[in-house]
Design goal:
Number of domains: 4
Largest sheet: 38 strands, antiparallel
Radius of gyration: 35 Å
Helix content: under 10%
Number of strands: 78
Structural class: mainly beta
Length: about 1200
């Protein structure tokens, strides 16, 4: 710990009363102090001044305190650097004492910032964050208008750099501006209200798609912009459902709104970032303090006013329904400040039973609404001066050498094997240092060196479930500056650029063909100019790297199964190297329509050792397509799970990698880029070269042209159609050379016209992880969307696809012919409840491939018309679609669909397709069983009229919100003989979590099963606890794991607890383990507690254990006295152990208890013997005594923090 050492004796003394000062003198802890180790590990103490460092490598280390993190005017009474000798398996303790003029320190402001809240000044490179979100998602509508006023909020940690901001709501397809809101840095955190009106004052058309984004601008005109988010609408059925919605939503908002604020505040949605964020970060954790807001002052004026209240701007109606809420779960506030002198002012509301009264907004109007508090509310103010941009330098080093001679005798096994225990001479030593500083107020230097460092992981991650013990403090440990697989870590940062030697991720993803993604160790230069073009791109950007790869990489693409469980191709994946995304691909061209990056921990959980990935939400097999014409009976766009990762292999790997990505702007409208990558592999060298040019023809029109070529094959590319159970490798010949090139354009014209064009040529021998599904194919396409009126939209699309040199297996399956041409014309008209869609599609096929016996791959002209109508007060929606082929063989297809909402909590969808080629049925259900439990299910079945073959696809998922902190999810996905999916048979099942299935029974499950043609994988863990009656409780747990049909390992545990009568209680348990090696272990325990009177009870426990190697029994008899809250226990424990080599007997006499509410004692005496089978006997006597004391406040009885 770190503490105030008033008498400079190096110890934290107990509080004592001073007659001269007439007060109690204490040596309190010092929070938020930073400590550094010589290898670059950085530790920050908690509010009690405590810290711990898990997983330290044995040997000598140095731990140094950073004086800059101490309170102003303080000095150390102990050494600022302490040398540690870490022994395997043992703990080491280090304390730091600090002294100062306590009277000058003990000002109200200092005490508040050091004790009541957590204040941290982080001088490392800041990480800007910008996000805008709406709490109302989906937006509820009734009779084509918004039910509630939609509230937007802007979340950012660099508001001090903002001069003005603008929120824009646009048409997603044509980018037509619908509505905008503007403001400055003083109201950037205020809520923005929107009633669903466009800029002319009319209600928007809810059948169109809309999205919103935020643009902020600094004083120099540089701007940042977020990625657009789509606005989702949901219709309320009737007046009854509307009343119920109003009744429930207010109560839900009281708990969900603070969570939403907390979650959105941590998200970063930046897409364009041109503002130079040159500054440092301050972090404020309000803890239990009732902080109202944080105000940033400079030169006497307010720069930013950041609210901390979790809810602001309540309507009068909402306030009347509001119950008193206490805020206890608030996330820390991080604020990036530019260089200069600032004053941080924290305003705290008075703590009393009367809740603070928010400013009332009687049905909020559209626009930005300032939220605050009525003037009569008492507010306390605390301030702290902060200087940003000062130069500093921190350095700690360790040079260490040791020689010695070891004498070994007898049979002693060390905790950790080392040469020094072999006997004879040994030598040991290392050199290490850690350096961090800022030079000339601009350059941030970070470096660490350790001659003994040899990390395997790419990015260090302490897994608390592995083997690390639990510590009793809340300190934080940062390993960022040790992030290297070698001995040296070096990082130099300035502006938006950096030079790095260590571990890093390379992701060349701003082109389509020359994409490259790896996690590597070596050197990297990332240079980016501060100046940007008018479109937000840096004028010059260069990324170059030279690296060593000590592990292999893989790229996998898995067709979604409808479930949550997926398996990577390999095991032993390196922690932190996984990059996962979910893609939706066009059903006609196979091109990616949309992509979403997934994050480990928040979106999925990765078991790196087994290569198993579990998504928190099931990934659907199909999503709806825009076209109403279907060539398959079950129709939709396919969903893929795509992952890149690194994995370990047994063989030693030392492969060289080098490359660069450069991009230069010529004026504001032209950008030219180049990419080069070379991987020196064991069998061949992979090379990727590419060039690209981007032309901006105004803000709403862009043209991009690319050319790339490759030599040999990129390592490890695999495709799976059953969730990773089986894989097919997409291989390219070692000496092959291939090319890929293309051009694409995107324009938004006249506020009502959107045009997209593209041309792509990808040769079969071209190798890139991003082109697996497009190899050996030429594509050309055009798409235009035009709004004839507010109610009518016309869409035209034309796509031509051709195989190049017979294509690849994937592209042959996509096309089924050497060339296909598809044209589509669609008209959509909305007339209140009736939506009419007419569509014409023409498909021309040239030279069909003989290996695909699919009659659907042929010339066709198809007409279709679809009507969607909402009736019965929106509780029932009917869809009728008629599709007919125009030609000699008229193929008809009729689809009837019904969406029913019989209750507010149940939604059912059903579609039936009747065609000359067969029939298809698709059923779906969504049931909100309770406010906290939602079930989802979908089932489809296809029957081929000619062969009679039946295929099916199904997925069932459930989501249960058990409490505010626990959710349960389960899913099942299945596919069998489905046209277009290329899956014979695959089934996946994943369940997990804890649920209370009845008032008396609780079940915990972890169930994973995958089954396909190639075999079965199973892992099951089930636990249950049931209150049989008022006196009896039974709990069980069963776990199994294995491959194939057999189970390799089984473990079962059963416990029972019964209150026989008012004085007697029985506790029994049974545990049986059957391992994969055939070793079976069984343990029994029988316990009884008998209460003699109100103060005394007797307890006995009998235990039995058997295994092939030993048998053991034990008995414990106790007498327990409990009076006035004090407990005293005396016990006798007898144990007997019989093994292959010896018989052990022992008796242990124990006594423990509390003398009063401050003192406690414990003691035991053990007497036993070990009878070896060779006749030798060893006697054992052991005595242990313990005493405990805690000091309490004599008046309040509260345990003192300093005790």
């Amino acid at each position: 710990k770190v503490f105030f050492d008033r008498n400079a004796n190096g110890l934290q003394d107990a509080p004592e009363y001073s007659p001269l000062d007439r007060k109690e003198l204490q040596e309190p802890p010092i929070p938020n102090v930073q400590l550094m180790m010589e290898d670059g590990t950085v530790i920050t103490t908690d509010q009690e001044g405590k810290f711990h460092i898990p997983g330290v490598r044995p040997g000598r280390h140095v731990l140094r305190l950073d004086e800059r993190s101490l309170p102003e005017g303080s000095y150390l009474t102990t050494d600022k650097a302490v040398i540690l000798n870490i022994t395997p398996g043992l703990l080491t303790k280090v304390n730091f004492g600090v002294d100062l003029d306590y009277e000058s320190y003990a000002t109200e402001d200092n005490i508040y910032f050091n004790e009541e809240i957590k204040f941290v000044h982080d001088r490392t490179t800041p990480k800007p964050r910008l996000n805008v979100s709406t709490y109302e998602s989906p937006v509820m509508v009734y009779n084509d208008v918004f039910v509630d006023t939609v509230e937007f909020r802007i979340f950012t940690n660099y508001a001090a750099f903002v001069n003005k901001w603008k929120l824009e709501i646009v048409d997603k397809d044509t980018k037509r501006l619908v509505r905008s809101f503007e403001g400055d840095q003083l109201n950037i955190f205020d809520p923005i209200y929107w009633k669903g009106l466009d800029s002319t004052g009319n209600h928007i058309d809810l059948d169109k798609r809309y999205e919103y984004f935020i643009t902020i601008e600094d004083a120099k005109g540089n701007y940042d912009e977020t990625t657009p988010k789509e606005i989702v609408f949901e219709e309320i059925a009737d007046d009854e459902a509307l009343d119920k919605y109003y009744e429930n939503t207010k109560q839900i908002r009281l708990t969900e709104y603070p969570k939403w604020v907390k979650e959105e505040n941590q998200k970063n949605n930046l897409s364009i970032q041109t503002i130079l964020i040159d500054g440092e970060t301050i972090q404020i954790d309000q803890k239990e303090s009732p902080v109202r807001n944080v105000r940033i002052m400079q030169d006497g004026r307010v720069i930013n006013d950041i609210p901390v209240m979790e809810k602001q701007g309540l309507t009068a109606k909402e306030l009347l329904l509001k119950e008193k809420q206490k805020t206890t779960d608030s996330s820390p506030i991080d604020i990036i400040l530019p260089k200069g002198d600032f004053e941080v002012v924290v305003q705290e509301r008075e703590v009393d039973e009367a809740a603070p009264v928010p400013v009332l907004i009687d049905e909020p109007v559209e626009g930005v609404v300032s939220a605050g508090y009525d003037a009569p509310l008492d507010v306390k103010t605390y301030s702290k001066k902060v200087r940003v941009g000062e130069d500093y330098l921190f350095f700690v080093a360790l040079g260490d050498a040791e020689i010695g001679y070891s004498f070994t005798e007898g049979n002693i096994e060390p905790v950790e094997h080392d040469d020094r225990f072999n006997g004879g001479y040994y030598s040991d030593g290392k050199l290490a240092y850690y350096l961090k500083g800022k030079i000339k107020g601009k350059y941030l230097v970070t470096s660490s060196f350790d001659s003994e460092r040899n990390n395997k992981e790419i990015f260090k991650k302490i897994d608390e479930d592995t083997y690390y013990p639990v510590y009793g403090d809340e300190s934080s440990v940062n390993y960022a500056d040790t992030n290297t697989q070698g001995k040296l870590y070096l990082k130099l940062e300035w502006d938006k650029s950096e030079v790095l030697w260590g571990n890093y991720s390379i992701a060349f993803g701003d082109t389509e063909f020359a994409q490259f993604s790896r996690s590597l160790f070596g050197g990297k230069v990332d240079f980016e100019t501060v100046s940007t073009t008018d479109y937000g791109e840096p004028r010059t950007k260069i990324v170059a790297f030279r690296a060593e790869a000590k592990q292999k990489s893989a790229h996998v693409e898995m067709l979604a199964t409808g479930g949550s469980l997926y398996f990577m191709k390999h095991k032993d994946i390196l922690q932190g190297s996984d990059k996962v995304r979910v893609e939706v691909r066009d059903k006609i061209t196979g091109l990616v329509i949309s992509s979403r990056e997934m994050k480990e921990g928040s979106d999925y959980e990765m078991d790196y050792g087994s290569g198993r990935m579990l998504f928190w939400k099931p990934i659907p097999i199909l999503v709806d397509a825009y076209s109403i014409i279907s060539s398959e009976l079950l129709d939709g766009n396919l969903v893929y799970v795509v992952a890149d990762y690194e994995y370990e292999v047994e063989d030693k790997i030392d492969e060289a990698n080098a490359g660069f990505r450069a991009r230069q702007a010529f004026g504001d409208d032209v950008l030219v880029g180049a990419t080069y990558v070379k991987e020196s592999l064991a069998t061949s060298d992979y090379t990727l070269r590419g060039t690209d040019i981007t032309l901006h023809a105004g803000k709403d029109a862009t043209v991009v042209a690319e050319y790339a070529e490759s030599e040999a094959e990129v390592t490890g590319s695999f495709v799976s159609t059953d969730g990773g159970i089986t894989y097919t490798e997409i291989a390219t010949d070692e000496g092959s050379e291939g090319r890929a090139y293309g051009i694409k354009g995107d324009a938004r014209l006249f506020n009502n016209l959107a045009i997209k064009t593209y041309y792509k040529w990808v040769e079969n021998d071209f190798s890139s992880s991003a082109s697996l599904t497009q190899k050996g194919k030429e594509t050309i396409g055009l798409e235009a969307i035009y709004d004839l009126s507010e109610d009518t939209r016309v869409t035209f699309r034309h796509d031509i696809q051709s195989l190049i040199e017979d294509g690849s297996g994937v592209t042959q399956l996509q096309l089924g012919a050497y060339k296909t041409s598809t044209s589509l014309l669609q008209v959509v008209h909305q007339a209140r409840r009736l939506k009419i869609t007419g569509e014409y599609q023409r498909k021309v096929v040239e030279k069909r491939l003989d290996q695909f016996d699919n009659t659907e791959i042929s010339d066709e002209d198809v007409l279709a018309i679809q009507a969607d109508y909402d009736l019965v007060s929106d509780k029932l929606a009917v869809t009728l679609r008629q599709q007919v082929s125009v030609g000699d063989e008229q193929e008809r297809q009729t689809t009837i669909g019904v969406t029913a909402t019989p209750t507010e909590t149940l939604k059912i969808t059903a579609t039936e397709t009747l065609a000359d080629s067969g029939t298809a049925t698709r059923l779906g259900v969504e049931a909100s069983v309770t406010e906290k439990l939602t079930l989802l299910g979908e089932y489809g079945i296809v029957t081929d009229a000619e062969t009679g073959k039946v295929g099916s696809v199904a997925s069932v998922g459930g989501k249960a919100k058990v409490s505010d902190v626990l959710e349960l999810e389960g899913s099942v996905g299945m596919a069998s003989d489905v046209p277009g999916l290329s899956v014979d048979r695959a089934t996946t099942l994943a369940l997990g979590g804890t649920t209370k299935i009845s008032e008396n029974t609780e079940v915990t499950t972890q169930f994973e099963v995958s089954d396909s043609n190639s075999g079965q994988k199973t892992k099951v863990a089930v636990g249950g606890a049931s209150q049989v009656d008022d006196d009896t409780k039974v709990s069980t747990q069963l776990s199994m794991a294995g491959d194939g049909l057999g189970v390799d390992t089984r473990t079962m545990t059963i416990t029972g607890d019964q209150q026989v009568d008012d004085t007697t209680r029985i506790q029994n348990s049974l545990s049986v383990t059957d391992s994969a090696t055939g070793v079976k272990t069984t343990n029994f325990s029988f316990g009884t507690t008998k209460r003699i009177n109100e103060e005394i009870e007797l307890a006995s426990v009998r235990t039995f254990g058997t295994s092939p190697d030993e048998n053991k029994t034990g008995s414990k008899y106790s007498i327990i006295r409990e009076k006035d809250g004090k407990r005293l226990e005396g016990s006798l424990t007898r144990s007997y152990l019989e093994s292959d080599s010896a018989v052990t007997r022992s008796n242990i006499f124990g006594l423990s208890g509390e003398i009063d509410d401050r003192w406690a004692l414990s003691g035991s005496y053990e007497k036993g013997e070990v009878q070896n089978l060779d006749g030798e006997t060893t006697l054992r006597d052991a005595l242990s005594i313990g005493i405990g004391y805690v000091k309490k406040d004599p008046e309040k009885g509260k345990v003192l923090e300093s005790s």
